[in-house]
Design brief:
Layout: H1 3-56, H2 65-73, H3 80-102, H4 105-118, H5 122-139, E1 152-155, E2 164-171, H6 174-180, E3 184-190, E4 198-204, E5 209-210, H7 215-223, H8 249-252
Antiparallel strand pairs: 1-2, 1-5, 2-3, 3-4
Helix pairs in contact: 1-2, 1-3
């Protein structure tokens, strides 16, 4: 075994060990930058504006606006990483307060009224509903049983001999249901490894096979490309078959399990 083969083998081992940590750190940094760029820096600007208004009303000691901005943005009075830390921390607090507000009846009603007003804008009306449906599907609290085992299904999406793993996202289109003369369901087929992208199919209810899997297990399987396959409770993987030298793969392979109806 030469140096090139050793390098390739150990490099892949190191990559497999480091990649989960690197991807996790990348996601944390992405969330940090998203909060800072979307909310944090604007909150700091709002703090400067409130500071300036308090000074103009003689409620605080007079300071020029340039000095206020220098205090936050120059990096001399406060290090920039401290400013970003304050902005991201206040962003998290703001998100929590918004969630607390819309979590009660009055706040939810006010929020829906604001949404109806925003939906009157033509450009936003074309984009906002689709984005809201996706974010609600991913982030909104779910009712008991909404995404239990029966919501992960297998369906013939493109080939009658190939099964695709998907998630039932709703009932089928009413015109299609009436035309087909039977119950239809809408199934989202995620892609691998980017499981949050994919395509949607509408299939007859009787052609969809419900799987005893949780959504999290199905997503792990899809993201890993099938490497991380969930096992039924109480079932463990069989020990690897030691293939004798010179024996064929067919002789060493265990017999396929029969499908239980």
């Amino acid at each position: 075994m030469g140096f090139a083969e050793d390098f390739r083998r150990f490099f892949l081992r190191g990559l497999a060990a480091l990649l989960p940590t690197l991807i996790t750190l990348w996601l944390v940094v992405w969330v940090w930058n998203f909060l800072w760029e979307s909310l944090g820096q604007h909150i700091i600007s709002a703090i400067i504006w409130v500071w300036y208004r308090l000074v103009s009303w003689n409620l605080m000691e007079w300071q020029p606006l340039v000095q206020m901005r220098r205090y936050w943005w120059s990096g001399q009075e406060l290090p920039l990483w401290v400013v970003k830390l304050i902005g991201v921390g206040l962003s998290i607090l703001l998100v929590y307060i918004v969630g607390l507000f819309v979590g009660n009846l009055i706040g939810r009603t006010v929020w829906r009224m604001a949404e109806r007003q925003v939906m009157r804008i033509p450009m936003i009306r074309a984009i906002y509903p689709a984005i809201k449906q996706v974010t609600d599907f991913i982030l909104a609290p779910r009712k008991a049983g909404q995404f239990d085992q029966s919501r992960v299904v297998a369906v013939h999406a493109r080939d009658p001999n190939v099964w695709s793993i998907g998630l039932v996202t709703g009932t089928g289109l009413r015109p299609l249901t009436e035309m087909a003369g039977g119950e239809m369901v809408t199934v989202f087929i995620p892609s691998s490894p980017t499981a949050f992208s994919g395509y949607v199919v509408v299939a007859p209810r009787e052609s969809v096979v419900e799987l005893p899997l949780k959504v999290e297990e199905a997503m792990r399987m899809l993201v890993s490309g099938g490497v991380v396959a969930p096992l039924p409770e109480g079932v463990s993987l069989p020990p690897p078959v030691q293939q004798a030298e010179g024996s064929s793969l067919a002789a060493a392979a265990p017999p396929a399990q029969e499908r239980v109806a």
